[in-house]
Amino acid sequence: MKKYITLFVLLFFSVAVFAQHTTYDLKTNIRYYPEQDYKNNTYKAERCVVDVYYPTNKKAFATILWFHGGGITGGNKEIPQELKEKGYAIIGVGYRLSPNVKAPAYIEDAAAAVAWTFNNIEKYGGDATKIFLSGHSAGGYLNLMVGLDKKWLAKYNIDANKIAGLIPFSPQCITHFTVRKEKGIPEKQPVVDEYAPLYHVRGDAPPLLLITGDKELELLGRCEENAYMARMMKLNGHTQTQHYELQGYGHDMVVPGYPLLLKEVKRILDKK
Q1: What is the pLDDT of residues 99-114, one digit of tens each?
Q2: CA 91/CA 69 separation, integer angstroms
Q3: Are strands 24-31 and 49-55 parallel, antiparallel or unpaired?
Q4: How far apart, in whole angstroms, are the C-alpha atoms of residue 223 and residue 212?
Q5: DSSP 72
Q6: Which backbone phi and psi does 187 adopt, to 5 degrees?
Q7: What is the pLDDT of residues 137-179, one digit of tens each?
Q8: DSSP output for 187-237
Q9: Considering Cα of 200, then 203, then 208, then 214, what sign does the dihedral take?
């Protein structure tokens, strides 16, 4: 009798463990603009697509949109390995690059990808109230532009404040150097205009975690830009702004930044 009880217990726990294991699927090159926008536009068809990595046996999961870096002149959509198998959907976003297009085309692309996620993630089993924006460098800049300047998502009748959290890695907070280059402004000439996240600081924005490398090792004052961004957000009444400076790391601070991203996502979800 004891033998059968033991086998039953082992079988029960084996089934329970198996049932708790989350499985994932990957859908690639999904277009986030209306189909007609891609007609006779091979560059848009190549760049304006997303990859969706998502849990297949879990519901109401959170989603992290990851925007690649590359100075808005290079790079490709990616789904970081360090973010996989954490119970979340990860969306790797592609967008058009300069000099093939000029500002604000790539910001428009970022907003369209975010809007697509709001409108479609529930079809995959996700929760549209749990959408986070993250990404490195140029990708982080796009996070801030879409999340702080509400006009980009308003085009799709989406309130940017519905974003669950903004967690950019080493973003440019003044006007991006590629935007300045397009306008003939020297790289080392700081500008804060409509294409600067700093221009759009506001107290009612989604929670904001800015992650940068060491100020002595980062690009061209990037750490100081983020520190000033954090200060101005707080002065504007934003109570959920943080800035982490990763000592000993330069602009290549992505890998040590992932645990901070995941920790912040969990913190925000735990409060919902």
Answers
A1: 999 999 999 999 999 9
A2: 14
A3: antiparallel
A4: 6
A5: T
A6: -60, -35
A7: 999 999 999 999 999 999 999 999 999 999 999 999 999 999 9
A8: TTS---STT-GGGG--TTSPPEEEEEE-TTTSSTTHHHHHHHHHHHHHHTT
A9: positive
Alpha carbon distance 271, 226 (integer Å): 25
Element holding 180 (H helix, E strand): helix 177-182
* Angle, helix 105-120 to helix 138-148, in steps of 10 degrees: 70
Q: For residues 128 and 62, what is the distance between their CA atoms, to the nearest angstrom? A: 8
Residue 20: band (very low, low, confident or very high) from pLDDT cuts 50, 70, 90: low
CA 250 to chain centre: 20
In sequence order, what are the residues at sequence separation of 6 or more whose Cβ sits closer than 8 angstroms to the Cβ of residue 170?
136, 137, 140, 211, 212, 213, 218, 219, 222, 226, 251, 253
Q: Residue 34, preceding bond cis, omega within 30 degrees? A: no
Q: Is the dihedral of CA 6, 12, 16, 18 positive or negative?
A: positive
Q: What is the spatial order of strands in the sheet that 208-213 belongs to? A: 24-31, 49-55, 89-93, 61-67, 126-136, 165-169, 208-213, 241-246
- Amino acid in the structure at residue 221: G
What's at 216, amino acid-wise?
A: E
Q: Quick one: tokens of 114?
A: 């975010």
Tell me how far apart the terminal alpha carbons of the chain are, to the nearest angstrom.
Answer: 47
For residue 55, which of 95, 14, 84 has the smallest C-alpha distance? Answer: 84
